[in-house]
Amino acid sequence: MILMTAAAFKPSAETAPQSGARLLVSTLERLGVEVVFGYPGGAIMPVYDALAGSKLKHILVRHEQGAAFSADAYARKSGKVGVCMATSGPGATNLVTGIANAMMDSVPIVCITGNVAQGLMGTDAFQEIDILGVTLPIVKHSILVRSAAEVPAAIEEAFHIARSGRPGPVLVDLPKDVQFETTADDYGFSIPNEAPRVDHDAIAAAEAAIRAAKKPLVYIGGGVKIGGATGALRAFVAATGIPQVSTLNALGTIPTDAPGMLGMLGMHGTRAANHAVQDSDLLIVVGARFDDRATGKLAEFAPNARIVHFDIDASEVGKLRSANVAVVGELREGVEALTARMRSGAALNIQAWADDCAGAAKAGAHRYDAPGEGVYAPALLKEISEAAGDDFIAACDVGQHQMWAAMHCRFAKPEAHITSGGLGAMGFGLPAGIGAKLADPSATVVTIAGDGGFMMNIQELATLKRYGIPLKIVLIDNSSLGLVRQWQELFFAENYSEIDLSDNPDFVKVAEAFGIEAFRIDRRDQVSDGIQRLLAADGPCLAHVVIDPRDNVWPLVPPGKSNAEMMEGS
Ligand SMILES: Cc1ncc(C[n+]2csc(CCOP(=O)(O)OP(=O)(O)O)c2C)c(N)n1
């Protein structure tokens, strides 16, 4: 827990007395916040009282987890800080999964929780939870605000910390007496001057390593988009011709169909990407953290490769794989400086390697002509992403459908792919779709969910209806917890334990009961028309897509194995 430091404040002009709750709202307005996702309750009622009549658009979700997930996706899509709020106790604990999600994927959100009055703290008061304690390991920072006069500075500090450096979630806990207290003081907050520096010696060493390599490969992580370095990385790749692989969170950083982009690496990566990594003699790792889903068995990951690692977070460099060259700092400046050096020297002589990689990508290209009449989810997802074009944004849930979306959708830009990468939280897709659509009403946002995960936040259909959010939902229903079923089939001798969801409700009726247009697709010949109908619908719309429960995701690196050992299905 971090309490505010006096040095962070500077006294500002005296103003008319306002309550802490009112100061919270006016500070959010001053910071340019437009949308807040939340759910009221006893310990945050003064804030809700102050919200009425404010410029903030408050979205009343139906479960606080939805508020945190929506704020997270709003931040990912808009590039701004997402904001959610909840009451003390159960409201606050319902935010926890969303906070962890933002932490794992480095997403800037500010979570505001009410708490019992300070005099009651520590007494097991009604709905009292030490939410700072509960969330300590999963926040970037947390602030317990002790007086109304501290509110503006606390919120500004929270925003600053959430989005600076490596972004992440910041929790601001407001006891109820602080919300009620009135004050004419506003201490203000001065943002520390943190001019980015580029380590030119490290950049020179990176250039030397690249020039010495025969098989260099760029390993792109989610940090590239978070760091606003997408343009810089695209320029680097264009200048050098070095092939690239992407993590799940970085999909779209380089468009899926760009030459040199080999696709996702790791457990459900492409053959071309995984082989290129294993073959490479130099990995240029940019904003990635060597997640085990990406590396497979770490000891056998990229065995021949030296490592050049760019990251804003020094603690990521050398954490799991030591770096031969470490470039710690803002990614955009670092990559731009490297590109300038590469441009000013001779062109790289890596054509044979680039051709090898391109040949492998072509040879390993997925075939979409699966046998049978049933819906083939990879083909459907490919088709919908292509039909939606460059405005396509997928907000994915977690499971087989998520992996199919990652492997088969076309992503033209990094914000086009919104997924719970690090935490892998089922239930993310629907609220994430809501957040993304509110961040960019002109985009074609499609939630891609499985029947299991969809049920985890299905109540947010009411949020869609209430605000008329024209989100499109592709619900891929295999009557089971598909990814778990696949692992049981492959690694637990077909002992199918607790994965059957064949008693799912009729999802079309469920959606209709919430007032949402819905229809069913259960044959391949219905797919194209169904996609057109979904994309053309004026309001929210759900396509309930029924697939064969036995369909599996291929290829797959078995858990604990090296990425060289990919399994292929029949
Ligand atoms: C909150 C949560 N609980 C459990 C899991 C473990 N888990 C990962 S994938 C999966 C199955 C998902 O099933 P479904 O949503 O139907 O999608 P499918 O795999 O069938 O496409 C489960 C249970 C998880 N990721 N998140």
From TrEMBL:
<dbReference type="InterPro" id="IPR012001">
    <property type="entry name" value="Thiamin_PyroP_enz_TPP-bd_dom"/>
</dbReference>
<dbReference type="InterPro" id="IPR011766">
    <property type="entry name" value="TPP_enzyme_TPP-bd"/>
</dbReference>
<comment type="similarity">
    <text>Belongs to the TPP enzyme family.</text>
</comment>
<dbReference type="InterPro" id="IPR000399">
    <property type="entry name" value="TPP-bd_CS"/>
</dbReference>
<dbReference type="GO" id="GO:0003984">
    <property type="term" value="F:acetolactate synthase activity"/>
</dbReference>
<feature type="domain" description="Thiamine pyrophosphate enzyme central">
    <location>
        <begin position="203"/>
        <end position="338"/>
    </location>
</feature>
<dbReference type="Pfam" id="PF00205">
    <property type="entry name" value="TPP_enzyme_M"/>
</dbReference>
<keyword id="KW-0808">Transferase</keyword>
<keyword id="KW-0479">Metal-binding</keyword>
<comment type="pathway">
    <text>Amino-acid biosynthesis; L-valine biosynthesis; L-valine from pyruvate: step 1/4.</text>
</comment>
<dbReference type="InterPro" id="IPR045229">
    <property type="entry name" value="TPP_enz"/>
</dbReference>
<dbReference type="InterPro" id="IPR039368">
    <property type="entry name" value="AHAS_TPP"/>
</dbReference>
<protein>
    <recommendedName>
        <fullName>Acetolactate synthase</fullName>
        <ecNumber>2.2.1.6</ecNumber>
    </recommendedName>
</protein>
<keyword id="KW-0786">Thiamine pyrophosphate</keyword>
<keyword id="KW-0100">Branched-chain amino acid biosynthesis</keyword>
<feature type="domain" description="Thiamine pyrophosphate enzyme N-terminal TPP-binding">
    <location>
        <begin position="19"/>
        <end position="132"/>
    </location>
</feature>
<dbReference type="InterPro" id="IPR029061">
    <property type="entry name" value="THDP-binding"/>
</dbReference>
<dbReference type="InterPro" id="IPR029035">
    <property type="entry name" value="DHS-like_NAD/FAD-binding_dom"/>
</dbReference>
<keyword id="KW-0028">Amino-acid biosynthesis</keyword>
<keyword id="KW-0460">Magnesium</keyword>
<dbReference type="Pfam" id="PF02776">
    <property type="entry name" value="TPP_enzyme_N"/>
</dbReference>
<comment type="pathway">
    <text>Amino-acid biosynthesis; L-isoleucine biosynthesis; L-isoleucine from 2-oxobutanoate: step 1/4.</text>
</comment>
<dbReference type="InterPro" id="IPR012000">
    <property type="entry name" value="Thiamin_PyroP_enz_cen_dom"/>
</dbReference>
<feature type="domain" description="Thiamine pyrophosphate enzyme TPP-binding">
    <location>
        <begin position="397"/>
        <end position="545"/>
    </location>
</feature>
<dbReference type="InterPro" id="IPR012846">
    <property type="entry name" value="Acetolactate_synth_lsu"/>
</dbReference>
<dbReference type="Pfam" id="PF02775">
    <property type="entry name" value="TPP_enzyme_C"/>
</dbReference>
